[in-house]
Amino acid sequence: MTEKAIPMLPCQSLQPVLDFYTALGFEVTFQQKSPNPYAVVVYGGIELHFFGMKGYDPTQSYSGCCVATDDVDTLHAAFRAGLKATYGKIPSRGLPRIGPIKDMSYGARQFLLSDPGGNCVRVAQKISENQHHRPAPKETFARSLHYAAIFTHSREDPAGAAQIIDRVLGLEDERPTPLQEARLLLLRAEAAHQLGDDATAEHMLDTAAAVQLTEEQRDAVRGDLERLTELLASGQP
Q: Looking at the chain, which runs of residues are DSSP E strands?
């Protein structure tokens, strides 16, 4: 016996969704307009089906799926290149959007992709046999980093991440290490950008860049620092 599960995802209109996946490098292998709007896109071993719904609001969508891969970095690079070639930019907020690639606390290296229909596609590679969340650290700032990263890069809840970070950075009786402070500020900059508040994002980014770090610590945050700097400088949505 051979089984295969195929996600069927809703959208308001098929064409913007198909245009988006075509930009990523998918092939449209089936499309019908009546009696019900329906389409299929394929990329390697990834097959996604879409159906149109009148009155559907993509901004209120909770639908999505997970794509398991053994080379998440290559897929991320290919999808970003496709978006850049087609649209001249890489959308990072609103719909559609593609997020950064991150190592998560539940043993996966992943990125999130949201299409014009509001569907979230989680593209993930196992980097640990243990797929359970690691226990949250007990230390105040490590714990906040743990949860803020999940809210930002897994739950797609930048407002929740901002609340966590603002609370912990406002403590008067405890202070983070320089590396913890830089990481918290960079996460806060990312959350602000996702929320459409680039003035706060730029302030947090500048503050993070000014934190006194050792060369080794600077290397640990260099990727996020450069990515966010480029993102904000480009004025990309």
A: 8-11, 27-32, 38-43, 46-52, 64-68, 97-98, 102-103, 108-114, 120-126
